Structure formats: structure tokens, C-alpha cells
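[Primary structure, fold]
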Amino acid sequence: MAALQRSLVAAAPAGRHTASVIFLHGSGDSGPGVRDWIKQVLKKNLSFQHIKVIYPTAPARPYTPMRGSLSNVWFDRYKISYDCPEHIETIDSMCQVLTSLIDDEVKNGIKKNRILLGGFSMGGGMAMHLAYRYHQDVAGVFALSSFLNKNSVVYQALKKEGQEVPELFQCHGTADELVLYSWGEETNKMLTSLGVTTTFLSLPNLYHEMNKSELEKLQEWILKKLPEQC
């Protein structure tokens, strides 16, 4: 728990803080790492007048796809594959840790419907678990180059009737060699069929990475979901 708190990096809003974005990095990266990467691609920080952007770092844990070596990952995987079971135990324990981060924002006066959750690759997958299973009252979710496993428990959670769920903004490169484009597409189809309002941006010839146009569109979407308040 302490490991996560100590490694937070926040981009403070330029003006009055009325909304927050929690941006989760991909496997093996860190909060400062993904923040720097975004800055490199955008040629500036992802920053806003009224929105704080929080980049937590996942605590190091043994990671099965790396033969049990320690890595900064949000959860373990049996393998990087669309059709294998999810490692529920590690996903659920991290959902609890990240819930404390959301609770901290709420204690600081930010309403849940003024918080966005999202991330790149594994970070986007984590954000979908966090929002659709535990925090359906957040403003929205974004997932860049991400996927959910074929029989994800997220889908089971969304089968409960009569609930309003956060909108999803999803982007995926067609040339992604690590998280296949088809995995992202299938995830989007499943979520849409379960009543999630989604935007799916297909990025031609993009590998497992972020590009400028994608981040600019994400920035626009964030401002649409979290407009400045008078």
C-alpha cells in the first residue's frame, strides 16, 4: 500500500482543482515513466487548467510472463493471451489499493463523477476492472492498447440489470504486436453489447505505443467528460 502512495506523480492543475484523472502505466513501467513518455510524444505535459493528473506506480510483484521476475505490474497474468483465465486474486487486491487513491481524491473534495480512470496497455485493463466492477459512478474510462480476457469477470459484473455505467474511450494500433488489435476490438464489442457507450479509435500502422493524434483526442475527450466548472 505504502509503495503506491510514495510513488505518486501528479500534474497539478494550473487553476482551481475540480476534477482528477488517474492514469495507469503499462507493465514494467512507472508513473514517472509514462508521464515522461506522454510528454515526449505530445511535446508537452498532459495538463489542464482544472484537472489534476495522477500517475501512480504499481508495486513490484513476481510476474509470471517474465518467469516470476519482479516487475511493476498492476496484476499477474498466467500468460499474455486473450483466451486464458484472469489472475483474479491479484486484480482484486490491486482494485482495493487503487480504491484508496480514489477515496483520497473524494476526501479532497472531488466528486466521483469528476474522476476519470484509464491507462495504457495493462493500465487500461486495470482501469476497466476498477471502474466497471467497483466504481461505476466515475465520469468515464479510457484504455489505450488494452484488452480484457475473453471470459473477463468485468463482463459478468456488467450483466446485472439496470445500472448506469461509465463511458469508454478506447484506442488501438492495427500493427500492435503485443496486445493484438483483434483483442482490443473484441473487448470493445463485448462491452458495447453489455450496454457500455464506447468510442473505438483504430490507429493504422501503430505498434504497441502511443502517438500524438491519439493523445490529442484523449485530451479532448477528457475535457468533454470533465468540463471546467464556473
In short: The first strand starts at residue 9 and ends at 11.
